[in-house]
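hey can u check if this looks right to u? its 170 residues, i copy pasted from the old doc so theres a chance i mangled smth
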Amino acid sequence: MSSYPDQVRAAERAEIRKRYQRRHKGPVQLGPPASVRVAEIDRVLTDRWGEILPHDDAGADDAFIVCHHLARRAGDPAVRMQGWLDRRAPWMPPADRLTLIERVMARPLRWKADTLAKALGLTAANRTRLKIKSIGAIDQTSAERAEIRRLAKIEYKRKRRAAKAADPIY
């Protein structure tokens, strides 16, 4: 049985948590980072190959990359990988699928943004066109992308201030 001061402290802590979450939300993300990254890789691959990966080394390399990212998602990663391979690489023999899944599950890799961009061959133009945020570009450095974001933010604020000044005050 909790006493009144304990209930008050618990309520105060809950209020602090709520205020902290409100203040520290950060950029809006559609889901957990691994989910966002998988969706973005899928967008790049669909743009490049369509719904089915090619039956060659390039398709196998792309399946390898996606499986490593699926291994980092919540739930049962082996089932996710199997489902993804069924949809996107139906040409892959079951023995090769099992080998790939076991290899990935043994030691899933973490990919940095620029390393992944190099593996996918993602250019800045395609990155912008496909609205990719978590993968780098092979023809832009991280610093160059940061500078572009900084300039876009400045331009956005300038336009917002101009629009605010144009609004009549009633």
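The first helix runs from residue 4 to 23.
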